[in-house]
Amino acid sequence: MKQKKIIYSIITKQLLLSLIMAALIIIFIMVTIEVQLEYEQKLGELNERLDRIPIAFLDIITQSLWDFDDKQLENSVQSIYNIGGVSFISITSTEGNVISAGLVEGDGFKNLSYDLYYSYNGKDVRLGVMNVYYVLPQISDIIVEMLSEIFLRVVFIVSLIFLILFILVNYFIAKPISNLATIIQAKSDYSTVIFPRRKIFKECDEIDVLFTSFNYILDNIRLEIDDRKKNEKKLVESVNEKNILISEVHHRVKNNLQIILSLLNLQKNESDSIEDALNSTINRIRAMSEVHEQLYNSNDFSNISMYSYLISLIGNMSDLSSGINIKMVSSGKDFQVVLDTAIPLGLIINELILNSVKYAFPEGVGAIEIEILEKIEGYFQIRVKDNGVGVKNIDELRRPSSLGFHIVESLIEQIDGKIDIISDNGLSIIISVPL
Length: 435
Description:
It is a single chain. About 55% of the residues lie in helices and about 20% in strands. It is an alpha+beta fold. Among the domains are: about 15-140, Beta-Lactamase (2-Layer Sandwich), CATH 3.30.450; about 270-435, Heat Shock Protein 90 (2-Layer Sandwich). The two termini are about 70 Å apart.
């Protein structure tokens, strides 16, 4: 595509318009400042002249009135009238005689009034009054008087500054950018751009950065292609990982089903009623499913929080007996366990709670507490404690009819853990889980 040669770029035009507006504003401000200074100067000079009237003329005028020296009086009045800014002056004696000079026309006049007294035999005799009318300096007159001088001076200075600025910006910034844009638009083969230009300083400036950035475009395109290839590779690896994960899920489901089958085989040899057997099995399956629920909610397919899991497990078991309070004791401790440890550990806690509910409270009233203890010698510890009748001999727990405790010991061995039993004011069992 044929490129149109750019004489003045859009930046140049915008800059020119901005400079003109800025110049007009600066001209207006400078003219206003100079007019204000001139006005204050003229006002100060007028006030200085008016302040000299009572000092220089009142005594002479009073003496002339006393001596009836009309000639001297007229000369004094004329002298005051000749003061710059005074438009009219009149002296009215007590006899009604008026001596005046000048003329008052229009509005905007200010008036100074002086009572004329003459001291005679220690008494002040009033001889008349003198009124002096004057006009303040007019802004419009000052503007008319100084406009050409101020305007030309300010316009010349501002125009010179902005003209130099405009030329420099257009030549060294706007035009090079426009030329660079034209060259870039003409490029279709992604080859390196050669863009020589004149510069005041040898240092690299923003246009050089822009030019250099364009020459990096090809590299960036290549990097983007490489990134896409890497992303495709990651996607393939992700698919493979998901396939492995699915296979692992199938394996875990198989293991969980095998655990359930083993528990059912053990349960069928018990003498419990069908309802008790079903409830025990339901609680065990629920303990296993809660592990997967925790994994799903945490978006972590390898570890779960033991504290959160126990809270949920206890919540699901709270309806085992209305008279037994099952609660989690908050100690501020927590630890993470992998799935292969979480399921056996959950079943262990489940069995311990079921055993307490079943055997510890003959009256059907009591409390069971579950607490995570301090880490000791590379083991995390969980205590399940009830305030029931306890046991006279620890070996009673290992009797052949005690299915729940046999399940606990089997699962403890599976996770390489340890179990400690204390029978004091109830039964306290501490499960130690290796880190």
